[in-house]
Amino acid sequence: MQIKYIIVVLIFLFIGNASSNEETVTWNELRKLTWSDFKAAPDSNSGAVALTASGITFGYSLKTSGKRIIDFKYSVEAHFYPDKSWYISEKGDSYILGHEQLHFDITELYVRKFRQQLERLVANQNIKQQMNQIHIAINEALDKTQKTYDAQTKHSINVDAQKYWETYIAEELAKLDTYKSQ
């Protein structure tokens, strides 16, 4: 019996493409972002005080026997990209940093949703397509949620909306605690 492994890695970013040597911070509930994590030059034309570049790293391997796929493994992580993230130091405070942290937490929420959906899959000949379809759908939902978060909070200006989102995301993360990043 011939067993073969195929490994595929896909990366999604809100801002640009990641290079293999690029510094990343993997989401961890014990490690919160600090302003020193934001290393890119600020974009003075954007009107924003800060920008968080985060995304989902997804990879999988397939175990085959002959031409049949008999098993699969996957890896899904939430990453923050320091070299694509920035802030204006004169305007960045702990409140703004909390808004940016929540962007990263939203990315983690969708990583958990992704893992939950992948866990339900059963190895079959269409597993690659199924995983890729889930990956696309998760990234679309993540992007929509990030944009909704910024729109509703007016990029953190609406304090009541910001508090709502902090509570909402904390509750959603707790519901999917089984799938959290380690």
From TrEMBL:
Tell me where on the tree of life, at the top rank, the source sits: Bacteria
Stored Pfam families: DUF922
Write down the InterPro entries for this protein, in alphabetical order. Answer: DUF922
Could you identify this protein by its name? DUF922 domain-containing protein
What is the scientific name of the source organism? Winogradskyella flava
